[in-house]
Design brief:
about 20% strand, homodimer, about 325 residues, transferase (chains A, B), alpha/beta, LPPG:FO 2-phospho-L-lactate transferase activity (chains A, B)
Chain lengths: ~325, ~325
């Protein structure tokens, strides 16, 4: 059996869309999806992994497509009752979603690694692809804001990304170990593509790259590393990336994202509306192509996945 | 303001019915409902208090009347999702019920006492009566069975009371302290009635009586102690009491229950169908009356509550 040919690093919603496309294009045993865990947090004693869960629900076809997170047809009776009790209701826990958190938390308490629990959940939900946390060790994004440091979910959900961002840190990253399965795949001769999904560069991709040895392992991989721009037409397709760039004094352009990856990546993909950026990205020393990157439906996801893989293969020739 | 006039010791369903009747009859500030906690258990990291919750849901009018536990109109989406994940689904956690457990568990983790958390839940749900756990310290019923020792919920829910019972023990009871509010009420000059609700004598009332100093405090109280028989017409109105009595070699009669309370109680109430037991109970040295004790509707609960209180007042004259 062939080993992993494609590794996709992903945050939540946008990344999960491309991950789904890749899952439709590749044989299941060839795809390794690596999820950011720096959004994870403990809430009401539940260990919640928003990115892993978004990818999981997306891959098994249960994701709520209109809101971009959670489960289609979800109910909210637990949250409503919690609210009536005066409990914290700022993080919207759906009834079915709670089951995922209860299951995961209990298994972790029993001593299972997050990787093991994720594999169990994927198996139970009929997901044939390998989905793993980037590390089994806790890494937590802390958002530096004008009003002080905020744990990521406090910033993202409770404060709706309103505080002005001045920087980030990734608590625990310096003590985290790369998931051994990722390490093995990165050093495998079967590997032909490493993809950074169109995820937030600051809080989805950066915390994964902050794990000691990660950049070295990526540079040592014998496959092109291709990043897909999450910035399209001067804004983020989803989430706070554009607002963060603005607050950090960066232009809201694919080029500004590409600069962050220029020491690491082989190539950068911009959307067709940003064709003017291609030449400037190439000046960074990166290969660059423009292609349609918006994924409004499953056909879009499949098409982008195919295009990205074809591009990786072309780059490695 | 007058202090507590009436203390009701209660387990789950049957006890909660009389507690509701008492709540309808007495001014809220005069009633103290004391719940058994020896059924409590930790499940999926949630601290679950079945008797407290049954009484809570009953008092606030949310109890599911047909099944005798849980919440009316409850949904089961979390449990179904948990089952799909291969998580433990033998204990039926409703979506709204999960909120109670999440809230309680979080508050306990924050350092609150179970009494405090119970008061918070009662306040949030509009319950004006005082409902307290018999102790803030853990007491856990272990059921001795022909097949070995079983934690109570394993016996009661997972194994549906099927194992043959040979005895009980109450882990932690010897180190538990009587709830200070109960201790104060028992020694108050305002107290005029102590009621043992028609709850299981082995696993609802006995663990409360096993707490050091409880029997002494009851005997020192200046109010009659009146127990209502949970055995009516040769069977238990609800739950495994009759099966337990049979397996323990006891006759399934009110008299056999009365004998367990004969050193402690002032009086014993049997149902009208057990009028033949009155003389035999009186031979134990207990006062005894027969009255209608079945509580099929709210009128029944109110009527029994009134009758029991009137009887207590008659006894103390």
């Amino acid at each position: 059996m062939k080993g992993i040919s494609t590794i996709a690093f992903s945050g939540g919603v946008g990344g999960a869309k491309l991950a789904l496309g890749l899952a439709r294009v590749l044989p299941p045993e060839e795809l390794l999806i690596v999820a950011n865990t720096a959004d994870d947090f403990d809430h009401l004693g539940l260990h919640i992994c928003p990115d892993l869960d978004t990818i999981t629900y997306t891959l098994c076809g249960r994701a709520n497509r209109s809101q971009g997170w959670g489960i289609e047809g979800e109910t909210w009776n637990c949250l409503q009752a919690l609210s009536e009790l005066g409990g914290p209701d700022w993080f919207r826990l759906g009834d079915r979603d709670v089951a995922t958190h209860l299951y995961r938390t209990q298994r972790l308490r029993e001593g299972a690694r997050l990787s093991e629990v994720t594999a169990e959940i994927c198996l139970a939900l009929g997901i044939g692809q390998r989905l793993i946390p980037v590390s089994d060790d806790p890494v937590r994004t802390i958002v530096h804001t004008a009003g002080g440091d905020l744990p990521f979910q406090d910033y993202f959900v409770r404060q709706r990304c309103e505080p002005r961002v001045t920087g980030f840190r990734f608590d625990g990253a310096d003590r985290a170990a790369i998931n051994p399965e990722l390490h093995a795949a990165l050093s495998s001769p079967d590997l032909s593509a490493v993809i950074f999904c169109p995820s937030n560069p600051f809080v989805s991709i950066a915390p994964m790259l902050a794990i000691p040895g990660m950049q070295e392992a990526l540079l040592a991989a014998r496959a092109p590393i291709v990043a897909v721009s999450p910035i399209v037409g001067g804004t983020a397709v989803k989430g706070p990336a554009a607002k963060m760039m603005s607050e950090l004094g960066l232009p809201i352009t694919p080029l500004a994202v590409a600069k962050r990856y220029s020491d690491l990546a082989t190539a950068f993909i911009v959307d067709v509306v940003d064709g003017d950026q291609v030449a400037r990205v190439r000046e960074l020393g990166l290969a660059c192509e423009a292609m349609p990157t918006l994924m409004n439906n499953d056909d879009d996801k499949l098409r982008l996945a195919s295009s990205v893989i074809d591009y990786c293969h072309a780059l490695s020739r």
